[in-house]
Amino acid sequence: MKRCTNCWTDNPDDAERCKKCGRVFDESWWHNKNYRLYWKAIGIGLVVGSIMAIVGYFLFGASNTFFFGLIPIPFVTGCIATVLSYRMEPDTTNSFINALAAGLIIGCAVVMGIFGFAFFSGDTAPVMMVILIPGLTIWALFGGALGTVINAAIESGKKATITITVLLIASIALIVYGAYQFNVNANYSNGAYMSAYDLDFVDIIQPEADAYLNAPYSTSEERLSNLKNAKVKYERMLNITVGTKPQVDEMIGNSTSSIKKEYALAMGQYLQLKHDYCLEMYTGIQLEINGNTAEAQKHYQNAKALIPKIQSQNDQITAIINKDQSFKNYITEKRDDAKKYSGRHSSENMTFTPS
């Protein structure tokens, strides 16, 4: 008879593991209970994690929300690997090691995926991305810690099992919600800042462009030079309004309160009006450069007709901001920062220099 040194149960001589606790009788380092990996437990955890990732992708697409939502996956995988491996061998240390292995696998897979995607897209991923391996591994160990508590609860009775299951679900929900809110706030803050920065940049460029456009001239060559300088600046403004749209769209989609949503939508309309104005002016300048003055004047008039609408929309934005003092303080701070930054970088505006 073989007596198990873990639970002291007698087993048949040809038994490979204890019939009660599952302890492997082979004492080599690989089969030692403190180092044994149960690939079935780890595999089930990875499958559940993969399903979570797939569902998240279909819900959110390849967005920031999706990537932040992946944070709970190593936590869940480590928890599952710990619980299932403990069922195969009731040893806390060994089940914890299985969570560690699950985290390492996820970390390596994520880093390899990032570098592989960067390679095939022609980019270079930063070497610092390898820090994700220990980071995700530690996160899986946190899941393993919860799995250890669940194992203890299961052994103590059915009521405790239900309690811990609820705790597990609540933990995952809080992690997902926290990651989502972090992402929302980051995106909103970035959208509010960048849109303010870009629109302040447009406000800096426009007087410079109009100064060229309205400057007195004595020869057609001088007028042409002024038009080309104005064209360069209006083209710059037009490109800014196009480039700012994704920031405003992100702000609209991620606004977490009614006033932020209202502000974001108003900013979107204001940006569209500024875009239309710059487009009309750019088109008119281009036509005048080409000698079609009559058509150019029509576009100048179209742009002029948009000025009251732009002012009215700006007043509406101000009214929205004034509805909430804390929100007003937030937006004012962002606008002040953006104004200072855009002012320091006003030298980026190009002008045409005739040869």
Automatic annotation (TrEMBL):
State the name under which the record lists this protein: Region of a membrane-bound protein predicted to be embedded in the membrane
Sequence segments annotated as region (Disordered): 336-355
Highest taxon of source: Archaea
- Transmembrane stretches, by residue range? 37-60, 66-84, 96-120, 126-150, 162-180
**The keyword DNA damage belongs to this UniProt entry's keyword annotation:** no
Q: Which UniProt keywords apply?
A: Membrane, Transmembrane, Transmembrane helix
Task: Report whether DNA damage shows up as a keyword of the record.
Answer: no
